[in-house]
């Protein structure tokens, strides 16, 4: 049998490859090489598009309806071409796109089969050397044997793998297009791509766009057919080019004209109505080929003007999901009420569908979670573009059902319903007697708006204002003018479609946990081309707007003056933790923050000597410094460590760090504590001079203690600067700060003795450090470390608690400098949460438990539930006001007796010398001589 005839191409009658399907792979490859050699010997190839004659193409109405429903904007620029549906549709579509004829489809299938058989490693997933061309596990790949069988046998199923093999066979990229679906993450998103086969240049533009379609239109989209997409010339002339989409194009709806890159031909397009069978046979006769779309021979264009019909401008079929068609006017009230009272459940929709909407009505299901009293217009977004909501109206109307079943408009005035009448050219209202029953009233609200691009294109949403209303009605009047760019668009060349509200809500939820870039990438993969985020800037703007809603601040968030103005209003209305805003000439404002609960703890805990009030300045929380106070909350203990937790005390936010600035804060606290005995108050800090002076000035009767760790670090640095060896350095530091060192001397005599020893040691090591010790360090340790420890019976104190609470604050702001209002809100939330933990500890819930001194306030959960809110608050107040007695006790050696330890140790008040009884002597009497 003659398979090919010289250079003239004839369709391949059958595959001899089918005879070797059951044989081993080497036999299949030998047969494929034989077929490849025949093609090369007789120079058989697919003719280029330049050798094709002018032809007439037919619009595929089924594919057009699919695009109208799922992606209507594309119809303004492209149209799907009718293709034979006999199981060879992928190759027919490619033949039609390349040559304007389907007659080469068997040749293309043969080339695809040869490609798959000869290059097993690129298509056999079980091969150890498998090269994954698709790189997406959402696309199901069949076994290699099945793939070869479907490629060899005519009228067999084609998949994405065959498309990659076809791209490799023709040596050019191909565009695969899958209409957008709701489950885009697993369907349309992975199948819409640039298909680059083995050995094909990735940078080359696609030579054709093949659309996944179906042979008949239905409610669900189950593709079983392929058609090529052809681009209509912008000048509306007879030139048509195959659709090619640039990979770098950021617009989802853009189709780039590549007529300069490929050879195009004059074709004309017309639309025909036809039914298509997926398993029909293709007849070579002209009549059947036209009916089935297999145009074996091109027809000359017989139109005089050669104008291609604009399929985007002529839609003679209503939206397939519409529940009714309008005649240019909105429905009457009677028609609306009739739909509400007798809804067609099968025609109801959860949202306004995508697609062209002209003179149609949709019945929409109301979201049960939404409140009809809110802005219902936002509940029904569509893909029509920008609606002019500012000029829209939303009248609310009440109708009375008369006895004859008609509806009459009535008006509510001064609590009573009236009829409206016109008397002598003037509107009057006549009160209805008796007043109608609510069961006879129907209240509806209608929202009217027009499209900004064309005021003749109108939309109306009607809602029935009843609690049991399940539906709303949406109507579209006029001819859709197409999409326009957003009003804020700088380029003005992109078509705007509103992002669905569900997508925006999902975006807000994800932004609370992830970065904008992560959210953009995740949602782009999940949603289809039209419903996903428009760009990265939209996600960033969404995060910014959500923050503004959560933390509303008038003006610029980086403008300190705006924040101070807002804080002034909050302080005036007593709605903030900020208690005072201090303004001094030439200085930035200062803020003092605390709550009544914190002041109560200062009085009950710090002023009674149960905890030291630590003070420390921290940085990088905001544009200003933050001086934090903290203390141990002795009423509760941590469930794990059994230690008292560190609580945040009053806070000072300031810019300057001089004596006057600090005095504003501590004098304010001194005034608040004026009625409280502060003689037992111990305040600890570092050696910052202005801070120390402000504390001692504001609290002269209180004790001030320095952090021994900071003093030790300063002394270590002095010794290092003086080039003292490590062994000598450690010896001196241990003599000063060790457990038996100078800081822990029991009395003044021991202190002086240890000082002499240290000075003697320093004379042999470093004269500079000796001078520093004698002039500054010794007296600092005596007055600010040793004497306070002896007087208040304290151990060596460090400000580790302050450093710990500073670390907590930096975690609150995520280690980033925050605007002032954001920092204040974070501090307020943290402080309130701390005191809520005390309340929870009363019931034994949470991280903390009541300490032994407050254990008698603990109640069971059952008792707590039975108490009223007033009783709970009273119990909590008693617990907070309780001041425990001195808990220091001494237990006997046998463990049988426990007594309270003496606090004064037999010393006089303020005595720091060793307890030594005065020596008594007898006066010697002089003997008279």
From TrEMBL:
Residue intervals of the OTU domain: 78-232
Coiled-coil ranges (or none): none
Gene3D superfamilies: 3.90.70.80
Ranges of compositional bias, category Basic and acidic residues: 538-550
Family matches, as PROSITE patterns: OTU
Region (Disordered) residue spans: 271-293, 525-558
CDD domains hit by this protein: OTU_VRTN
Protein origin, superkingdom: Eukaryota
Name listed for the protein in its UniProt record: OTU domain-containing protein
């Amino acid at each position: 049998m003659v398979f090919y005839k010289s250079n003239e191409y004839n369709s391949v009658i059958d595959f001899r490859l089918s005879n070797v399907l059951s044989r081993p792979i080497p036999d299949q490859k030998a047969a494929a090489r034989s077929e490849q050699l025949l093609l090369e010997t007789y120079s058989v190839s697919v003719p280029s598009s330049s050798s094709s004659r002018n032809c007439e193409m037919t619009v595929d109405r089924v594919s057009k309806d699919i695009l109208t429903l799922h992606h209507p904007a594309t119809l303004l620029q492209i149209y799907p071409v009718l293709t034979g549906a006999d199981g060879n549709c992928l190759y027919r579509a490619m033949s039609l796109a390349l040559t304007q004829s389907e007659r080469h489809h068997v040749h293309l299938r043969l080339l695809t089969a040869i490609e798959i058989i000869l290059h097993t490693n690129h298509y056999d997933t079980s091969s150890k050397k498998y090269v994954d061309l698709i790189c997406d596990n959402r696309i199901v790949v069949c076994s290699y044997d099945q793939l070869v069988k479907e490629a060899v046998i005519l009228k067999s199923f084609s998949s994405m793998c065959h498309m990659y093999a076809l791209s490799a066979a023709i040596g050019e990229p191909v565009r695969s297009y899958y209409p957008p679906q709701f489950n885009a993450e697993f369907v349309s998103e992975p199948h819409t791509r640039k298909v680059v086969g083995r050995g094909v240049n990735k940078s080359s533009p696609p030579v054709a766009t093949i659309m996944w379609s179906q042979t008949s239109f239905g409610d669900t989209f189950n593709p079983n057919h392929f058609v090529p997409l052809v681009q209509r010339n912008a000048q509306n002339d007879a030139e048509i080019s195959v659709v090619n989409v640039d990979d770098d194009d950021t617009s989802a709806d853009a189709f780039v004209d590549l007529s300069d890159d490929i050879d195009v031909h004059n074709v004309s397009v017309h639309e025909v109505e036809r039914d298509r069978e997926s398993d029909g046979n293709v007849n070579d006769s002209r009549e059947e080929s036209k009916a089935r779309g297999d145009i074996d021979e091109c027809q000359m264009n017989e139109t005089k003007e050669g104008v291609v019909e604009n399929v985007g401008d002529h839609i003679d079929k209503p939206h397939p999901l519409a529940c009714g068609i309008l005649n240019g006017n909105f429905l009457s009230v009677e028609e609306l009420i009739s739909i509400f009272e007798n809804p067609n459940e099968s025609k109801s929709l959860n949202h306004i569908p995508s697609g062209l909407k002209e003179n149609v009505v949709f019945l929409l299901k109301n979201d049960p979670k939404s409140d009809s009293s809110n802005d219902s217009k936002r509940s029904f977004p569509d893909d029509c573009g920008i609606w002019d909501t500012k000029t829209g109206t939303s009248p609310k109307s009440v109708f009375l059902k008369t006895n004859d079943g008609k509806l009459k408009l009535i008006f509510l005035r001064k609590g009573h319903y009236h009829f409206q009448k016109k008397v002598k050219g003037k509107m009057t209202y006549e009160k209805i007697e008796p007043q109608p029953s609510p069961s006879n009233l129907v209240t509806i609200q209608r929202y009217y708006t027009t499209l900004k691009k064309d005021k003749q294109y109108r939309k109306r949403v009607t809602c029935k204002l009843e609690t049991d209303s399940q539906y709303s009605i949406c109507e579209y009047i006029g001819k859709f003018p197409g999409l326009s760019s957003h009003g804020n668009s700088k380029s003005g060349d992109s078509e705007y479609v509103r992002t669905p509200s569900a997508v925006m809500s999902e975006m807000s939820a994800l932004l609370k946990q992830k970065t904008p870039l992560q959210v953009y990438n995740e949602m782009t993969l999940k949603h289809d081309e039209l419903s996903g985020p428009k760009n990265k800037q939209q996600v960033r703007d969404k995060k910014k707007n959500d923050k503004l809603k959560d933390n509303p601040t008038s003006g610029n968030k980086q403008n300190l003056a705006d924040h101070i103005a807002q804080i002034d209003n909050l302080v005036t209305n007593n709605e903030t933790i900020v208690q005072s805003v201090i303004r001094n000439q030439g200085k930035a404002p200062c803020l003092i923050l605390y709550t009544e609960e914190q002041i109560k703890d200062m009085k009950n805990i710090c002023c009674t000597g149960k905890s030291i009030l630590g003070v420390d300045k921290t940085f990088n929380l905001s544009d200003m410094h933050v001086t934090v106070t903290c203390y141990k909350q002795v009423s509760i203990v941590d469930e794990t460590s059994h230690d008292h937790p560190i609580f945040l005390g009053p806070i000072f936010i300031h810019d300057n760090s001089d004596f006057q600035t600090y005095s504003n804060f501590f004098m304010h606290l001194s005034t608040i504590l004026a009625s409280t005995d502060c003689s037992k108050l111990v305040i600890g800090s570092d050696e910052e001079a202005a801070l120390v002076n402000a504390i001692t000035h504001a609290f002269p009767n209180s004790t001030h203690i320095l952090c021994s760790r900071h003093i030790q670090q300063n002394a270590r640095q002095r010794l290092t600067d003086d080039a003292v060896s490590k062994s000598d350095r450690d010896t001196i530091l241990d003599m000063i700060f060790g457990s038996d060192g100078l800081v822990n001397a029991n009395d003044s005599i021991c202190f002086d003795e240890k000082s002499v020893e240290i000075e003697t040691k320093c004379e042999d090591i470093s004269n500079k450090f000796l001078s520093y010790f004698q002039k500054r360090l010794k007296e600092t340790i005596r007055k600010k470390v040793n004497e306070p420890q002896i007087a208040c019976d304290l151990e060596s104190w460090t400000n580790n608690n302050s450093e710990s609470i500073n670390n907590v604050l930096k975690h609150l702001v995520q280690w980033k400098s925050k605007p002032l209002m954001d920092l204040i809100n974070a501090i307020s939330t943290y402080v309130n949460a701390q005191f809520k933990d005390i309340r929870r500890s009363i019931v034994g819930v949470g991280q903390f438990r009541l300490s032994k001194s407050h254990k008698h306030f603990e109640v069971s959960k059952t008792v707590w539930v039975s108490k009223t809110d007033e009783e709970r608050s009273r119990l909590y107040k008693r617990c907070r006001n309780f001041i425990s007695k001195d808990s220091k006790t001494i237990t006997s050696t046998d463990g049988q007796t426990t007594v309270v330890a003496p606090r004064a140790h037999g010393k006089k008040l303020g005595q720091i010398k060793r307890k030594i009884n005065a020596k008594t002597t007898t006066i010697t009497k002089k003997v008279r001589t």
